[in-house]
Structures are given as structure tokens and as C-alpha cells.
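HUMAN: Quick job: go over this next protein and say how the chain folds.
***
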Amino acid sequence: MSNKPEQQVKPDSATEAPRLLDRVRDRLRLKHYSLRTETAYLGWIKRYILFHGKRHPADMGKAEAEAFLSSLAVERNVSASTQSQALSALLFLYREVLALELPWLDDVTRAKKPVRLPTVLTRAETLSLLEKIENAELHLIVSLLYGSGLRLALEKLSAAQVDWLAALPHPLEALLGDCRLLLCHGAPWDLDQYVYPDAEPAFLERCAVPGHDCVILGHTHYQMVRDSGAVRLINPGSVGQPRNRQPGAQWAILDTSTRQVTLCCEDYDFHSVALEAAARHPELPYLSEVLVRT
């Protein structure tokens, strides 16, 4: 009878995967992700493992992640938002579960975002529409949409410029030096979602997309600098339409080497601008009132 100890057999990737997915699921629930996001992230991680022959993600890295994400665009022709969701799932896996920092993925073939040109009403058609809206709240919302400058922008921009703007992804990733940025209009998952300075920490944590140093937000017209974990959330404010009752052109300076943010407010003759706005668009009083309210 041999006295040699039994050699332990290392489980293969197929048996490791369920344990890994359980860890992913537990981490997602600990961080209060929605069930819908949990299902989506687990699905992408499974596909990632199968794509690379059931190799364990801990044994893979930048090259494998880029190959998988590129295949989604090249071979499966997925949308830009679908590819972005797959990227978020992999970043969550490596950063939150495996505690590994995935390098900047700059060699990914990006999925193309479909171009959808808006149909814009004339000024007369818009005013006619506004006159028929009896609900005060809805009237204000439509007035703000009209006053955003979209009509004027489409009159001034060429078709090629409109195509270029329409094709920009949301959110947009950028790399300045070694500072990894994510630029959003609203929230990273919804360009119409408001992210206010007094948002709950759990909500801000959801905005702090793993794999980025700073997330630049807009939409609210409120200046903001908040930290969630290692991610800095920044809203530079609004130059033309501040809504935080501090008149002036608001903007921000980001030092990409130190991640320090300076919130700025430039004084100008906003009373004259408000008077001109009221004269040009008497049917939209909000456009002038927002410039001077305190």
C-alpha cells in the first residue's frame, strides 16, 4: 500500500465558473444592483468565459477582454449600448469580484451607434402646439424642450455635423493623460436621469462606473463635486442656464493629474441677456427668469 498522499485534482474552469458566478451575484446584491442588472451582468460574464474556452477570468486580462468586446461589434453586430453593458459587466467582475484592475481597453472595436436625425417643428408649429397644452406642468416641460436651442442648432449646423453629433456614444469614454473619464448627459445608464448634488450615497455609487477616475455629468445645471469610492463625480454646471439660483456663467476646471476640481462662476451682464430673451421669446418666460433668479 502506497504512503504517498493523494494528489489533489485542480478543478477545471467548468466547475469553477458556478462558484465565481455566485461571488458575482453576492457582490451585485451587496451593492444593491437591480435584479435586471444582475441578470445582464451574469449573462455577459458567462459569455466571456465561454468565448475563451471556459478559461477562468483571473487567468485572462486586457487582451482577452478586448477580443471579446470587439467580437460583439464585428461578429455579432450588437448596438453601442449593448457593447457598453458588456464592458460594464467585465469591469465589475475584475474590479469588484476578482480585485484586479483591468487596464484601459483602448484596442476595442467599437459598435456603431445608429444615426437618428430628429424631426424638428417650425417656430409657428411649435407655438401652435404650445397654445393647445392646457396642463401647466406639461406646458413648462415642452417650453423648456423648445427653448433648449435645438431648432436653432439644426438651422446652423450642416447635415454632416448633425450626423457626427448624432453618432456620438452615450456615455462617452475619454482618456486625458492617465485620467480615465466617462462623460454623460444624465446618468451613465440613462441620459435623461437627473443626478443632483444631494443624491443618496447608494445612488451616487451606481453612477460611479468602475474603471473610471472621474464621471462628468450634466442635465441638472447644478454644479457638483462628489466622491463615491475611488470615483469622482463632477457636474461643471451651466454657462447659459444655471438653475441653482446663482446667476452667472458656471463651469469647472479639472486637473487630470491630481483629480482636483475648481468650480467657477463668471459674472456677466445677465440682466441684459434676460431682457433680450424675454423680448425674443415672450411666450417662454422661463428662459429669461432662470438667468436672474436668486
User: Anything to note?
Assistant: The longest strand covers residues 249-255.
